[in-house]
Amino acid sequence: MDRCNNVVEHFAMPSGLPSLRRFKTSSFFPAARQPFQHVPLTRPKEIRLLYFDEKVDRTTDGLIALRIAHVTLAEVKVNLYNYFALSYVWGTDTNDKVVKINGLDFNVTLNLESALRNIGNEQDSGLFWIDAICINQNDVLEKNSQVAMMGEIYAAASLTLVWLGECNPAISEAIDMLEASQLVHAEGGLPAIDLNHTINSLNHKSAWKGVGELLAAPWWRRMWVIQEIALGQRAMILCGTEKLMFQKLALGAEFAFKQNGMNHIFPVCGNGFTNYWRVQYMLQYRMRKQRGEPILLQELLENSVAGEASNPRDMVFSLFGLATDTEGVPELVVDYQMPVEEVYANVVKFHVREYKSLDMICRSAHPKRHQNLPSWVPDFLNLKETTSTPLATLSRSWSGNLYRYNASGTSTPNNNALAHSPGILRASAIFIDKIAHVGEEFWPGKFAESLECLATWYRIIGATIGFEREYIGGGPVIDAFNRTLCGDKARSGLRAPRGWRGYEVVEKGIEIPDDFRLGSEVADEVRREAWEVDALQAIALQSRRRRLIITETGYIGLGPSEVKEGDFVSILLGCSVPVILRPKGEDWWFVGESFVCGIMDGEILDTTVMAGKETESPESEPASKRYQVEQILLV
After folding, report:
1. Is a pLDDT exceeding 80 seen at residue 9?
2. CA-wise closest residue to 31 among 102, 134, 99
3. Which of helix, strand or coil describes residue 19?
């Protein structure tokens, strides 16, 4: 089989040691058992590179011997030095494995030692860069400087080598299958190819189990990998001694995802396909970077909710090298001495100032791991544990046809939003109503359980508002309820039009068997019409981790899991969705974003006194629908 080139062919060492004398070597080879000490980096854009002092026997436990050299990125370009950058998971915090660097002891994690043993088994593995060794982790100032350069370091590398761990028969079979496939990259998606031949070449259930294991590796959840793949020139996956170009795996996953005739793949792959979208984001960012397109920090944050980092600051720092709007921004700098709370607050402040929007605060959810964070600052390390499908969309790359909420119209945040003391956000607020009733939290699971939650919501509305009256925002109350369940959106993200048949599924749902489940199994368990499946999935998407809320005057909506009776539905100028606020003394505590049927498209702004002065409303306008802008402080 024609396998991808090995590491040696990509990174042959410069011929002979004399060429390496252009580098500055960190030390000689003194007596053993002494700890290695990094020689300071003194030149602009200077980095350290490694190479193996001798070939490594991966079948034994002998010590790995490395040498280290200093070089600037300018020298890399001028002298055409090829080096690869290793991308891997640090694993445990215990550095209990020892390697030799210039003859001196250096402790590394088990996973890194395993990667080095496999890479060093090549006859001549060339030059390479590894963050744990090439950056002095004990020197905070150097770490700040080098981490800020990591985007450039990966971009200058000839290859990003992705270490996913040791191999097994299933993974080996998966790599064989993907290598033999005819999938090649094409701009805009998969190319026009002989579909039948390709399906046959990829129709190996046992091999797809290995693909699932590849995609389920902890590496995919690292925050740093987005930048490492997007900025690198090429990427190769390494599992034990097995190698596969990253593009092959990504296209194989995309092909399986798009081919309805291969539904058997997903059960075989297990949880692996939960990382499918992260794979696609990496490739999309890579292509956009190559085309010179802007990539905004807010978009990167929105698409990285599932990411993980051992240092909470890296939830933000790991994106600076890829974001095109953060360069030169004073508060958006890599500084590991900066408190986590300040790092996260600076992201919000940047977004408010740069984009004249408060939507970033809508990522704030509770409870938070970092208790000292203001209520309006997201805990980026904890978002995947607390957030629902976002209502306020930060990404600017969406299709114009998708429905985006616009509750505050064209308004902008308070000009002095950030002028107060740290930890306080000044906002211009329109208080809509107090919350009178709160339903139980919706968690999609077995449909019988999910349906019971929806039925409870239905009964609450029937007992409080009633379905025989007109909704405060216009139209029948039942229509407002159905629109609320799905956030007024179809599963596709398009706005649900009036008369959309999907609303019937909520009322018909009482008749659905108890074993009917929300999610991908819907079509298999009960052969229902596609529009009903779409409606159920839209409900699961938008109502997940949210509660039904009903205000004193009869507004119906979805609030965050932490919402309580007595909280207030409010619109903040410059925020695209309504928010829930809770009194805290004379100030206000941000509970979270919300969907409230009838006020998502700027309707309230038409009846609001923007200048703070009461004006005469038209005679046809009830006084109860006049609103005032108030200046408040969020803490």
Report:
1. no
2. 102
3. helix
Question: Are 227 and 321 contacting, i.e. CB atoms less than 8 angstroms apart?
Answer: yes
Q: Looking at beta carbons, which pairs linking 258-263 to residues 24 or more positions away fall under 8 Å?
A: 258/190, 259/199, 261/199, 262/199, 262/202, 262/203
- Which tokens hold the place of 338? 């900066």
Q: Which of 2, 9, 75 is nearest to 234 (CA)?
A: 9
Who's near 568: CB < 8 A, 6+ residues apart?
Answer: 431, 432, 433, 434, 435, 580, 581, 582, 583
Q: What is the pLDDT of residue 186?
A: 45
DSSP readout, 330-379? TTSS--TTS-HHHHHHHHHHHHHHHHS--GGGGG--SS-SSTTS-TTS--
**What does residue 506 show for φ and ψ, rounded to 5 degrees?**
-70, -45
Half-sphere exposure (CA, 13 Å, Cβ side) for 136? 16
Under 8 Å between Cβ of 374 and 633: no
From CA 212, how far away is CA 264, in angstroms rounded?
Answer: 12
What lies within 8 Å, CB to CB, of 483 at 6+ separation is 496, 503, 597
Residue 588 has pLDDT above 50, yes or no: yes
What average pLDDT does this structure show over 404-430?
A: 93
Beta carbons within 8 Å of 566's beta carbon, 6+ residues apart: 434, 435, 582
For the entire predicted model, the pTM comes to: 0.86
Q: Write down the pLDDT at residue 6.
A: 41
Amino acid at position 426, single letter: R
pLDDT value of position 311: 95
Under DSSP, is residue 382 helix (H, G, I), strand (E, B) or coil? coil
Q: Map residue 592 onto helix, strand or coil.
A: strand
The answer for residues whose C-beta is within 8 angstroms of residue 343's C-beta and 6 or more apart is: 312, 313, 316, 317, 335
Q: Examine the pLDDT at 199 and tell me if it is beyond 60.
A: no
Residue range 571-595: average pLDDT? 98
Q: Looking up tokens 């020298």, which residue turns up? A: 75
If one compares 134 and 402, the residue with the highest pLDDT of the two is: 134
Mean model confidence pLDDT for the chain: 84
Q: For residue 396, what pLDDT band results from cuts at 50, 70 and 90?
A: low
Distance (Å, whole) CA 265 – CA 523: 16
β-pairing, 425-441 vs 579-584, is unpaired
pLDDT at 163: 97
Cis upstream peptide for 367 (omega within 30°): yes
Across-strand partners of 72?
46
Q: What share of the chain is helix, strand, coil (3-state, %, to 5)?
A: 35, 20, 45
Residue 74: per-residue pLDDT? 94
CB 158, CB 81: distance < 8 Å = no
d(CA 608, CA 626): 6
Tokens 């829930």 -> residue: 580
- Three-class DSSP category at 274: helix
First vs last C-alpha separation in the chain:
63
Contact 235, 86 (CB under 8 A): no
The answer to whether residues 400 and 493 touch, using CB atoms and an 8 Å cutoff, is no
Buried b / exposed e along 138-149 (16+ C-beta atoms within 10 A): eeeeebbebbeb
Q: Go through 447-476 and write b for each residue having 16 or more CB atoms within 10 A of its CB, e for each that does not.
A: beebbebbeebbebbeeebeeeeebbbeee
Work out the pLDDT band at 10, boundaries 50, 70, 90: very low
> What single DSSP character describes residue 490?
-
Instruction: Please name which of 576, 572, 568, 563 lies closest in space to residue 551, comparing C-alpha atoms.
Output: 568
Q: Which two tokens stand for residue 229?
A: 């793949």
Span of 164-173, 565-574, 593-602 with lowest mean pLDDT: 164-173
